[in-house]
Amino acid sequence: MREFITEFKKNTSRSFYIFNGILLVIVIWGFYNWGLALTEGPGITGGNDFVPWGIYLVGFVFFVGASAGATLIGLMIHAFSREDYEALGIRAILVGLLSLMAAVLNLMMDVGSPIRAILVPWVLHNMTSMLIYTSSTYFIFGGLFLAELFFALKIARGTATQTDEKIAKWLAIIAVPFALGILHAPHGALFAVVKAREYWHTPLLPPHFAVSALVTGTSFMILLALITSRIEKKEFVGRETLEHMGGLLAFFITLNLFFDFYDIFVLKYSEEPEGIEILDLLFGRFAPLFILNFGGLFIALMVLLNKRGRSVRALTFVSCLSIAAIMAYRWNLVIGGQILPLLPGYPEIHYYPTIPEIAMEAGIISLWLLLYSALTKTLPMEGPAKAHEKIPRPAHGVRRFGKGFQPVHTRKINY
Amino acid sequence: MKKFDRRNFLKLAAVTAGGLLLPGQANSGMLEELTSALRSLEGNKEVPPPIRGIKFGMVIDLGLCIGCRRCSYACKRENNVSDTISPPWITVFETESRTGIEGHYVHSEKPGKGTTMLYTKLRKDKWYMPTQCNHCDNAPCVKVCPTGASYKDTDGLVVIDYNKCIGCRYCMTACPYHARRFNWWKPNISPDRLNPLVPVRHLGIVEKCTFCIHRTRMGKTTRCVEACPNKARIFGNLNDPDSEISKLIASERNFRLKDKLNTEPRIWYLTRAKDKPMAWTTPLPPPEGIRGFES
Question: Residue A150 sits in which domain range?
């Protein structure tokens, strides 16, 4: 223990303590507000009987989406044998694990009786509810990510046997269909099955959720690679890897725009009364977010398709923009779906998050960052294969994404 | 800088954990919430058992409704609905015309302009539309409830087991009739108007119209039916072909809210045929003590 602390002290800088100290203050502020919500009542949030689901549900679906990056990186490493991704491996699993934790925390803060919610789905369960399936998947995925982390750490420490490596490989590969099929799509179905809300009630929603999860997940991973390189002041992943991730992001953004477009196109073309209401909302009160959603993704795609669009600066911009665009989409969907009145005669419905609510959400995000920075500091992050030391071996079938491989060390990257 | 050894680390950890847990500890009822949920696994003991062979339903005659909101007030007092719950369980809408009512509610068209909701002045040229929980046979709220707190009982009532509700509010987003209310604040009911037969819902759970389960299962009618001065509401047994409600549903022009959603609501609305005189043609005694009434 003493050795560990001395080692820890040697490796940490002053800015680490300041950064995490600020995060800790925000976490305490957020949890204090949660306590306030439990004692005073959830009424201190901006939610009301017309918009019962507020900022937490937006955060919840967003964080579930963010965990997609972890499975994607696992797939790249193990199924496509891209060793250059291995530097991201353990971090990606941590991102997945922490994002799931943040999603569950969002749900717990949202429910009126969190202590009773612990009984779901073990004791209290109604098998026709989508929430049972989504809440069960957190345990499945929590377990899967923990197992992946266990084997990845074993490999990183160099104590893994061949069987361990095989298990790690297969865990990463089965995670992908599982993630799309039972993690992301059911979260879309959570909304899609609600026939009372016309904006949610479309069979396109589950695949749309899966695709937008891939957009957020990939953007998250790009940002993670760039920020880590910045902090550790070394080439964390190679240029080729970054370009490859940029290509993946462009592909997912195209798919997402395709879903976005046909959603609106069908509503506009059929001119059903409910559809007109939705369009009135999207082009009216929610127009800024709608423009951010569509325009943001479109600009991101244009930048990525540009020749110089895969530079560090461009990639940072593009990933931030696509995360913001997907956030705007989630907001429009979750809040906009409830703002449309169910019965005519109600006054215009509004929802604005309040300070305690924002504090709680900020607390969750800070806790995510705090745990991430603490865990990356204490766990062995460097695998035996380091991207900046090794020349990445081109894998069969991946070439079509990039323009052929070039040894990483011959190209300079300015972070 | 202070030495960061194990003792200091433990101190810091204890202070942080205490700081995180303290606000949660203040709510002493939290453990009780957990145990009550476990106790209610054997069944909902807070309501009388359903009567065999009965299926409850309600008819609301829109031609007779004068929009006095007495049903809404009476319901609130009978069912211990807190002042913090808004809008109340029974919400009465004001609409422009009869076709407007059918147009809006059956086909759920775009809302017309100038319609308002509660406690407006009563006007003769308007139509009034009371809405509440429809106790649907194919209830979306029952389907989506993750805990099984909302369930459909054999006598046709959609009941909430308050001991099982976790307050996730999925049912509120799923209900097409906006019938459910959440306890955003601690209930605020003065002791003199407390009805001992109805449990007071605590903070953080969902509630809605129960069709006065504590009365109807004991052979009485609902409080809103009693309170209606114009007898616009009829409550009864749908299984009995000779009951008034069965005859009304069979004979008169009726519709149900958002029928196309296939929720099978248990509340039918009656509209009057064109040749039949409207209720407004016969003068009514002005209701006393109702806010906003204009004679």
Answer: 17-410
Residue among A112, A338, A343 whose CB faces B173 most closely: A338
Give a yes or no: residue A71 inside a domain.
yes
- In this structure, the number of other CB atoms found within 10 A of the CB of residue A21 comes to 10
Residues in chain B: 295
Mutate to test the interface with B, among A16, A34, A49, A132 (most CBs of B within 10 A): A49
* Residue A38 to residue B175, Cβ atoms within 8 A: no
Measure Cα distances from A160 to A149, A165, B130 in Å.
13, 7, 69
In order of A209, A354, B74, B104, B126, the CA distances from B116 in angstroms are 37, 27, 21, 14, 11
**Beta strand segments in chain B, E:** 56-61, 91-95, 127-131, 150-152, 158-160, 181-182, 206-207, 233-237, 254-255, 267-270
A33 to chain B: closest CA residue: B23
- Number of folded domains in chain A? 1
Integer Cα distance of B87 and B84 in angstroms: 9
Which of B33, B108, B134, B151 should we substitute to test contact with A (largest number of A Cβ atoms within 10 Å)?
B108
Interface test with A, best of B203, B209, B256, B259 (most A CBs within 10 A): B203
Among candidate residues A357, A89, A329, the one with its CA nearest the CA of residue A216: A329
CATH code for B58-274?
Answer: 3.30.70.20
Residue B97 or residue B244, greater confidence: B244
Q: Which CATH number covers residue A357? A: 1.20.1630.10
Cross-chain Cβ contact B34/A116 below 8 Å: yes
Does B117 sit within 8 Å of A345, measured CB to CB?
Answer: yes
pTM: 0.84
Q: Give the one of A47, A194, A273 whose C-beta lies nearest to B109's C-beta.
A: A273
Residue positions counted in chain A:
415
Q: CA triplet A19, A23, A27: central angle to 5 degrees?
A: 170
Query: For residue A103, what is the enclosing H or E element?
Result: helix A86-110
Instruction: Name the residue ranges covered by the structural domains of chain B.
Output: 58-274
pLDDT of residue B114: 33
Contact assessment for residue A328 and residue A296, using Cβ atoms and an 8 Å cutoff: yes
Q: How far is B282 from chain A (nearest CA, A)?
A: 27
Q: Name residues whose C-beta falls within 8 Å of residue B144's C-beta, 6 or more positions apart in sequence.
A: A128, A129, A130, A131, A193, A194, B170, B171, B174
Q: Kind of pairing, strands B150-152 and B127-131?
A: unpaired
Q: What is the pLDDT of residues A274-322, one digit of tens each?
A: 888 899 999 999 999 999 999 999 999 999 998 777 888 899 999 999 9
Question: Hey, which bits of A219-334 come out as E strands?
Answer: none
